[in-house]
Amino acid sequence: MKIIITSSFLIVSFFAFSQSKKGMESKPFSTKDKSVVVYTTAENSSLRLSKTDNLVFRELKQPTERQVCVFVNPLKTFQTFLGIGGAISDASAEVFAKLSKNKQEELLNAYYSTDKGIGYSLMRTNINSCDFSSGSYTYIDEGDKSLKTFNIEHDKKYRIPMIKRALATAGGKTTLYVSPWTPPAFMKSNNNLLQGGSLLTEYYQPWATYYSKFIKAYEKEGIPIWGLTVQNEPMAVQTWESCIYTAEEERDFLKNYLGPTLAKEGLGDKKIIVWDHNRDLMNQRANIVFSDPEASKYAWGMGFHWYETWAGGKPMFDNVGKVHEAYPSKNLIFTEGCVEKFDAAKYQFWANGARYGTSMINDFNNGTVAWTDWNILLDENGGPNHVGNFCFAPIHGDTTTGELIYTPSYYYIGHFSKFIRPNAKRVSTVVSRDTLLSTSFINSNGKMVTVVMNQSKEKVVYNLCIGTQAAEVSILPNAIQTLVY
Question: For this UniProt entry, which residues form the secretion signal (predicted)?
């Protein structure tokens, strides 16, 4: 009798556990009783993240060759989404301070509110000065090897107040990481904050400690730091703040100094990002750093920019996929991109926005988990920038009129950031015509988000296909849509 009772108990327990486990599993995605809400931004129209349609799914067992389709397969999911955002640089904060109180609130809501704006969930800022600062500076007295004079008083005037307000607007749910453009001049081979140079070996330890001091100082101000990049653009000798690291130098600095120092200082949970430069050389950097077990253990992933087109070629999206293929355990994050060479006559130049859409779709489809624009705000001159490297931002603040100028880039980014939320999973998405680009994510609340971009000058009618169900959608020329269902 005892054996029977025990057996029965085991059977009941196993059944209960199985039911509990089933309840914990997410239900497979279904189109049943779901509508497709369509949001559109299009050239030569007034549509800007505008709700343009509410569609239903119908049966479509076999598309014909003449039917244009976007095939979404919810059974195939990939990387987990971290966020989308931009950088609060010195320039952004200085322009922000010149705006009226009402315009400041408008800007913060435009970026960081999910209801009133595009819901940024990611942020970057600079350690020491960068080109988008009004002048060069560090946080120590020149020559202070012991870092006794370290302080962040400079940042308390403009940048820290703006970051705090942005975090508050986002409900404290924004992921912030930091990047240095240069060590202090005395630590470098050229004894200059600008024009490249490299970190002298005798200053590897003080410079590693510098990062920890910066992180702790910001966190003391109530600004949580999620992670950091080792060096902004480590292969570019710039007229502004810059510092060169070969792949081997970055590897050795990471494994022997930066990684161990952060761990020793109680900051071992901070995510360290290597490279932080263009797609062209990212594979070589990955091979050198990630193939070294001691360096690799400190590297959360790799950051990259989009400026490889300076040489006259096209964006090298495949390189991102190749790194992901070779090192699938490492995360990929787009750390900077902006439209170069500011020209006020091109505020509404549509190709600038399309550049964002093209890059974001391709980068996400190649395994990228997060995407960061450069300055979130610049003035009517594309600055301030202390070396004249003036660029575009998604929003400009005209300090002569006090008005905010929204560019197409703002709306293109918004088609992703407003609807794809942190912890979403990318979903397999394929288009049947190269006039369209598309990517999809499923949010943790079960809502599917598909972004479709029309690269052609013609209106396109396409089918959003999930299995044998499809919704017929129309997209205007040079337009981008977000489909939520």
Answer: 1-18
The CA-based dihedral angle spanning residues 88, 94, 96, 100, taken in that order and rounded to the nearest 10 degrees: 170
Catalytic residues: 233, 336
Query: What is the architecture of the domain spanning 35-79+427-484?
Result: Sandwich (2.60)
pLDDT band (50, 70, 90) for residue 55 = very high
Segment 294-336, tens digit of pLDDT: 999 999 999 999 999 999 999 999 999 999 999 999 999 999 9
CATH 3.30.420.240 at 83-421, yes or no: no
Alpha carbon of 327 to those of 171, 200, 330: distances in Å? Answer: 34, 30, 6
- 70: closest CA among 477, 475, 478, 479? 475
pLDDT tens-digit profile of 13-23? 333 333 333 33
The ranges of the chain annotated as CATH 3.20.20.80 are 83-421
The token pair at 192 is 């200059």
Comma-separated ranges of CATH 2.60.40.1180 domains in the chain: 35-79+427-484
